[in-house]
Design a protein that fits this description.
The protein has nine helices and 14 strands. It is an alpha/beta fold and 272 residues long. The protein has two domains: 3-55 and 201-268, FAD/NAD(P)-binding domain, CATH 3.50.50.60; 83-191, protoporphyrinogen ix oxidase, domain 3. It starts with a strand and ends with a strand. The structure holds flavin-adenine dinucleotide.
Length: 272
């Protein structure tokens, strides 16, 4: 079988790596002239790479931690205490520990206590995510934590993260961002640690690319999938011309200068 993956963000490059481990020579098509997608890095000179955006791991992100271990790089991730603050109504408020929440003056005292109790409640009460697929975060927060918790904390955070979709985000998302182990949850909230790669995520992408290529695959950057067509019992990926990323995100805008290549299966990992 000859597979292809569209997109070399974390999802795409890990999918191609897993296929390579199963003996498939997998081709990866990436629109951007680099790897990592939303978690890509930026060369700031002097041999230093930085994440383009703020990127960290939570201790609950077990799969990527296991991947680093699997690749023999367990020490690449550095765990540091979190030091998060909220900027509300012109003031900065520390926002890491339960004590910080109790001192969070933009909300009334009663609202702070109510939110604190509700933060640990869903995982203690519900060990699986199932009850949270059909309720939005907004509905759940308003009901369990109260209106102030939505207006001063969760609403602004979700609007920054999800824009116009903020009100439709399933509560399953918020449930899963907390630590997966209910017994660890209190400890986690008091001593939150965040993981950062010592040498940027690029090291991970390089390793995965090497493994994919060792298995006979190709990781092709600045080479978008401009079209996907049905062939004779296959799927044909038609590549866009180099530099197509300058035309935006819509593959219909990409110039096509080559014939497509046929694959038995294609995994698309593009965001939208
Ligand atoms: C500002 C910001 C901060 C974040 N911070 C964190 C964080 O701290 N911790 C965390 O865990 N997550 C964070 N995230 C989320 C995380 O970055 C994403 O969930 C993750 O990177 C998504 O990976 P992906 O491979 O699924 O998608 P993407 O990274 O979107 O990858 C999709 C890839 O497909 C490519 N592509 C698109 N169209 C085509 C095409 N036609 N042909 C070929 N290639 C194509 C794109 O160029 C891209 O490289 C953050 C996201 C943002 C935007």
């Amino acid at each position: 079988m000859r597979p292809a993956v569209i997109g070399a963000g974390v999802t795409g490059i890990v999918a191609a790596y897993r296929l390579s481990q199963r003996g498939y020579a997998c081709d990866v098509y990436e629109r951007w002239p680099g790897l990592g997608g939303q978690a890509a890095t930026l060369d700031v000179g002097g041999g230093h790479l930085l994440e383009r955006y703020y990127h960290h791991l939570f201790t609950s992100d077990r799969h990527i931690v296991e991947l680093y271990e699997e690749l023999g790089m367990p020490d690449e991730i550095e765990w540091r205490p979190s030091s998060v603050a909220m900027f509300v109504d012109g003031d900065s408020h520390a926002f890491t520990s339960p004590a910080d929440l109790l001192r969070f003056s933009p909300m009334s005292s009663a609202a702070r206590v109510r939110m604190g109790a509700a933060v640990v409640w869903p995982q203690r009460r519900y060990p699986t995510v199932d009850p949270f697929h059909d309720v939005t975060t907004r509905e759940w927060v308003n009901r369990a934590m109260g209106r102030q918790a939505w207006d001063k904390v969760w609403g602004p955070l979700l609007h920054e993260k999800f824009g116009r979709h903020a009100d439709q985000i399933a509560m399953a998302w918020l449930w899963s961002t907390a630590d997966g182990s209910p017994s660890d949850h209190g400890k986690q909230a008091r001593n939150e640690l965040l993981g950062y790669p010592r040498h940027s995520w690029e090291l991970l992408y390089d390793r995965l690319r090497d493994e994919i290529e060792r298995a006979g695959g190709r990781v092709m950057i600045d080479r978008p999938a401009a079209r996907l067509a049905r062939g004779d019992g296959s799927l044909v990926v038609v590549p866009g011309a180099a530099g197509s990323f300058r035309s935006g995100h819509d593959p219909r805008e990409f110039a096509v200068v080559e014939e497509g290549e046929a694959y038995d299966g294609v995994i698309a990992t593009v965001s939208q």
